[in-house]
Amino acid sequence: MKTEQYDAIVVGAGHNGLATGCYLAKSGLKVLIVERNDYIGGAAVSRELYSGWTYSNCSYVCSLLRPEVVRDLDLARHGLQVIPYESGATFMSNGDHFAYYSDHDALRREIARHSKKDVDAYDRYSKFVTKQCRFIKPLLLRTPPDPVRFRPRDIQELLYLGKRFHDLGARDMADTLRFYTMSVGEFLDEFFESEVIKAHLAGSGIIGTGLGVYSPGTAYVLLHHYMGEVDGSIGAWGFTRGGMGGVSKALGKAFEASGGTIKAGSALDRFLIKNGKVEGVVLENGDTYTANTVVSNMDVRRTFLNHVEDGELPGDFVKAVKRFKIRGSSGKINIALDGAPTFNNIPGTANFLRGDLHASESLDELERAYDAWKEGRWSEDPYFDMLIPTHVDPTMTPPGKHMMTLFIQYAPYELANGESWDGPNRDAFADTVIDKIARYSPDFKDLILHKEVRTPWDIEREVGLTEGNIFQGELTFDQLLFNRPVPGYADYRSPIRGLYLCGSSAHPGGGVMAAPGANAAREVLSDLGRKGFGRAA
Amino acid sequence: MTGHRPNLKDGLPVRRGLVETPFDRHLRPFSLAEDWMPWAGFVSARRFETVEAEYFAIRNQATLFDISPMHKYAITGRDALAVVNRLVTRNAAKLGDNRVGYTVWCDEDGSVIDDGTLFRFSETEFQLCCQEPQYSWLHDIAWGFDVTIEDQSDTIAGLALQGPTSFAVLKEAGFDGVENLKPFGIMDVASGLKISRTGFTGDLGYELWVEASKADELWDRLWPAGQNYGLRPIGGEALDMARIEAGFIAARVDFQPIHDAQRPSRGRTPFELGLDWLVDFEKGHFNGRRALLEAQRRGPRTLLVGLEIEGHKPARDAFVYHGKKKEAGHVTSALWSPTCKRNLALAELRAPYGVSVKDDLWVEIYHPKEGKWEKVMAQAKIAERPFFKNKRRSATPPGLF
Amino acid sequence: MTQYDAIVIGAGHNGLAAAATLAGAGKKVVVLEKNGDPGGMAANSTVAPGYECPAMAHLLSNLDGAEIASLGLERHGFAYAATDLPTISLSSDGKHIVSDAKGVRYADGGALAGEAEFLTLRARLIRFADQLAALKRKPPPSLSGIDWREAASLGKLALGLRRMGKEDMREFLRVLLSNSYDTILDEIDDGPLAGAFALDSVLGGHVGPRSPGTVLTLMYRLANGGAKHQPRGGMGAVMRAFEKSAKSAGAEIRYGAAVERMVLSGDRVTGVVLADGTEISGARVLSSLDPKTTMVLAGVGNFDAEMIRRARHIRTKGCTAKVNLALSAAPVFTGLSDDLHRGRILHAPSLAVMEKAFNLAKYGELPTSPILEVTIPSLADPGLVDGDGHVLSAVVQYVPYSLKQGWADDSRNALGDVVVDCLDQFAPGLKAAVTARQVLSPADIEAQTGAPGGHWHHGEMIADQMLMLRPAPGIERYALPVEGLYLCGASTHPGGDVTGIPGCNAAKAALQVKLGRAAA
């Protein structure tokens, strides 16, 4: 048992915790990051779970990482490289497919094959979404106002939001209001007639959420997946060279280069709290580290319900935290492949095989997948986001071999009848997905050398994300902006003085964005009277 | 198409990258410069050899420019006239059969979606020819009407035959009756071939519209016929010079088509593009009519004007100032006109400049001199368009020159 | 030919309210109704000779005292047969739950766990609903610039919210776009009570309790405290009162007058032509039809394509059917007292069951376990039936407009059977007592009333189609771009239910505009 003193402690070395740590350390504070696992990164990790194969075993693609953070923390110098992937496709059960070519001319021809009317509609659609991205992007690195408190900073921020909104003009204001409240399915129905095109685009509206394509509010979730960029190309997604761990590795290096200390394998027992003020942390091994500032990268429920002693928090706050919805809805499978799988009717040279692949061809099919989740079953006909990053990043496997990452929607955290995920259910879940892929790829099953199946339980146990929810909380309006994570506490602070949140439970939410981490750091520094970046609340 | 199982044996069902027009195999051998550009997914020549020679051919001989990538839509059916009049700002009822009219069409805010040529064959048969894709917009316009919209962009190929000897070429090729074709007239000359007396050069010229499958046949007839008349293929750059001289505007250059704009404020009304003459408020409702009435009442926010600029440095991408200081707008197209011997430009000025304040305009021109950039503040005057005018354009029958 | 100041299309409650308001302001008004009776969605239907039953809507909750007074409805024969009906939520274990203004309990009088939490939640949502109600008698706030005459109502809303205190205000902003599933289950366990409360958030709509936005719909329904009343003489009598109100104000009403198209002069509407060729001229036309149908009648070509596109995109997937029964004897629900039989009897066993029922509807399938709102109006209002029999009126939620197999008699019969079988479980003998049965699918409702998709509210009442987004951006303030043409039906703000408010609002909007000289 030892005791050390720091200026600030960050609990959890996920990308947000690391980002917060970096900003605090850069400002000259003596910062410690404690991490339960033996490795850093949280859900943004690269791990060798099969000899010679690197898996991005949780988070698997990159787009949302705020370019401001990349530049502020000089992550490129610390080794971060994101390779945008071209195109993507949805396989269809009739042997056809819809290829989402990044080449605009080819995409137009491809759309025309499915619906001539949808060709121009696609351009209109992408213009619309880009417009919404432009509207929302500046809000990501700002602290939401508290609309009921009327402090000068709240009023100022409300006026800023109001002005941005008003500047859109009447027509776009109405479009924006509708867009933020409607379902991705209905949104797409307004543009397209081809089911497969709608289904291809709708995936972004449900990934990671306990909502279906026809649930109002999912159009926003689509935007949440679109508002990223790779080198200024809005909506583009890419692979991090060396797997998603590359993001954490770069952040870790930046942190250490600023003089920060990381202690991995250090699980938190509880926050030290005295008179409503945080004084440090106690680890499970009994080690105690003191600091007047403690920032939690854990989700809001884990932070306050598991590691703060009863009685330290106001009852209303605890109730609100308990009410915060963090719903497990996804699973993951990582597969080591002996070679590149081939897909029915598609030449291996097709560039879209290097992008995101799907096999859900209608909105109804997606909605039915959601219905299963509501009833505590994994989808019999699941939506998946399938990628083979080794096509563009051969460093992850031995030459000629491949690694496949599969994100599966939906997989409930609680199975019906209280069944366990461990054991036969996990295998049956994986078989459902693998059988579905095998319908489109005859040689797929034979190429499988190893697979890592991750149910919501596994993700929760390993990464610490409650219910395995990738966003640390649903992205519905009641949990966004000033409502995230708890009304009145959207400014990264908590009822405990000196205790902050920096994870995806906080505004603007999940995705490997590092915006909550950066925003939390700014608020911490503002409370300490130090200058951070951007605008403090 | 949906549900149809494509033949994927030879690879992918669609071509990636740029594709060739039906005239590509005839044109490609002339491309000494190998200077190509993308145009609506097709390979299009920027120049074949030198821009200068190609430009002078437009004004002195006859030229061929491949306009196959233009978007072409057939609007046919009982309500065709009503749909067309709902679409465009001018009155298609006043357009005679077998006549062509230049037109623009607007969104509900009166912002121009695109400009193009409207071919009227009869009250029930029209064709729209334009730069921006309009297929789904036409369906929006046509909802509730008895009309069929067909995209003929891939099935109809086009050649612009422009220049003083263009009529002579047609005559030599044996296209009878073309001598009677008046400007903006269109006629069937053979099965699957229509010729209109239209063009983008402001000169004597024709556009030949041919079924893609008959493109070779047309070429084989036209090309030999042009040999004694200086016929040569030209690229987009020379054509662009001619179109500025002719005072024509180009989408995405002189105005931003509103459907391709993320910022609604970039939209321009026909009035702001100087196209008041195209708006007919008397014909009944058309898309954007109410907004345009309001826009007319309010007056233009900007105005696209022709400028004549002192000196001879083309004012490309230049800002326009009032009194050398106050920013008044920017140049959208510019060239030194070898035919007019004037330094010309089209510029978008912010009201009141160009509208009520028309003097003391200056253009800030940057130009490189052997690795060093120089800046000139050149005086500019609003000049009437078209900058280039010649009687041969409209003489019927045309001269052989 | 008579020149009217205003022509109102449709003699539903909104059309009649609009006519009464216009006529009351001294305008010469004619109402044109294609059917032979007033009412639209709020009419009576004869299930069998001597058996009168509310055809579609059967209860009133949002009809305000303000409209009752301003339209003089009571003077014209409107009365309640029963007020503040208790709500009974049927439970398959026989432990039915009763809720009313006083509280909640088991039907046998036993106390219910979770009562306090439920009442707190209900009271809070009613408080929120009261605040929102400030907006309903005005055109929705405009996005294209604030009209200072109306800013007062927005200011009142802001002030009202502020007065509720910080905690309430926070909660309001949190739940505003939330779903009823989470909002209710955060407080109480799933079951018949939760189901009963949530039914108001989905009834008439194509949404499940899990659909975000359903709390806003629930608050709309709670605007008058959520109490439900049964009108005397069925909904048909309410409509007669609306009709008399319009007539006594001086409006003329023509039945069997289907409007074929409108007549325009330039950019102004000048009248309508009926199906029989009769031309009627009027300076204004107020249409209680939905925007798309209205625009088609006025000529699609008179509207910009974007406006038409928005109108085409209004979601109107009807999801509610009606089953009306003529019964030889009063049904007896096991475990319910006589008094409770006069209440509003629900089959909404849980949110999970409701959500599952919605699943089927989404894919065009018939319900297997119907979600029901049932009344036996003849108990409180014996005048509905000649003799000893009774009528039972059942609103069936989650019946798709686009039924996979199409709406033919066998589908109607199948639906009727499912409903009767379900009720027979709770009221043994009910099935045997059925002497006549009327099944109205959403498609039938569309055919009879003109409501698009048979949707009860002429358009989904979910956030993206409410307030300034209702019925669609650009036409949210009743006026269409053609001069003199207005929307006055349930598709407009504030929306559905028998309220007459959209009609009154539209009439006021029409009265505010001075028409140009050519109109005279």
From TrEMBL, chain A:
Stated name of the protein: Pyridine nucleotide-disulfide oxidoreductase domain-containing protein 2
Pfam families from the UniProt entry: Amino_oxidase
Organism: Hwanghaeella grinnelliae
Transmembrane segments: none
Alphabetized GO MF terms: oxidoreductase activity
Entry-linked SUPFAM superfamilies: FAD/NAD(P)-binding domain
Subunit structure: Interacts with COX5B; this interaction may contribute to localize PYROXD2 to the inner face of the inner mitochondrial membrane.
Domain Amine oxidase stretches: 17-512
Stated role: Probable oxidoreductase that may play a role as regulator of mitochondrial function.
From TrEMBL, chain B:
GO cellular component: cytosol
InterPro entries in the record: GcvT/YgfZ/DmdA, GcvT/YgfZ_C, GcvT_C, GCVT_N, TrmE/GcvT-like
GO molecular function, one term: transferase activity
Sequence ranges assigned to domain Aminomethyltransferase C-terminal in this UniProt record: 304-389
Organism field: Hwanghaeella grinnelliae
Residues the record lists as binding substrate: E207
UniProt keyword terms in alphabetical order: Transferase
Residues in GCVT N-terminal domain copies: 42-283
Source organism, top-level taxon: Bacteria
This protein's name: Aminomethyl transferase family protein
Pfam families named among the record's database cross-references: GCV_T, GCV_T_C
From TrEMBL, chain C:
Pfam families (alphabetical): NAD_binding_8
InterPro entries in the record: FAD/NAD-bd_sf
Signal peptide: none
Name the record gives this protein: NAD(P)/FAD-dependent oxidoreductase
Species this chain originates from: Hwanghaeella grinnelliae
